[in-house]
Structures are given as C-alpha cells and as structure tokens.
Design brief:
two-stranded antiparallel ribbon; mainly beta
C-alpha cells in the first residue's frame, strides 16, 4: 500500500524485513488508474510490500 509522509507528502511503502517487522522505503510513483499505481523505483521485484485491507474470497455457504 502506498502511503504519503505527513510532513513531506512524499510517497513510501513498507517492506517486510521479518515476521511482522517492516521497513519504510521511499518510492517514485508513475502512472495511476485511480486504484493501482506504478512504482518506478525504490523497491525490488522480490520485496514484500505491506498490504492493508486485503480482500479474501467470500466463503461458499450451502443453502439449507
């Protein structure tokens, strides 16, 4: 999830460094469609970016 610094308004993400441990990484943003945004630099392809409010598939309940 891209966040913005309260003081500088610069974008950053949090990268997982261990079990429930995260490190802030400043990033450069590119094109956005209003939902997804391109990250041009600041993270690597193998970095695990913290994701908030990740949607899970709905459970399939059988009708009685």
């Amino acid at each position: 999830m891209v966040q913005f610094d309260n003081d500088t308004q610069q974008p950053f993400v949090e990268i997982e460094t261990g079990n429930q441990q995260f490190e802030r990484k400043d990033v450069e943003l590119g094109v956005s469609d209003g939902i997804n945004v391109e990250i041009k630099s600041g993270v690597g392809k193998d970095d695990k970016i913290k994701v908030w409010n990740q949607l899970k598939p709905a459970q399939n309940f059988a009708a009685n």
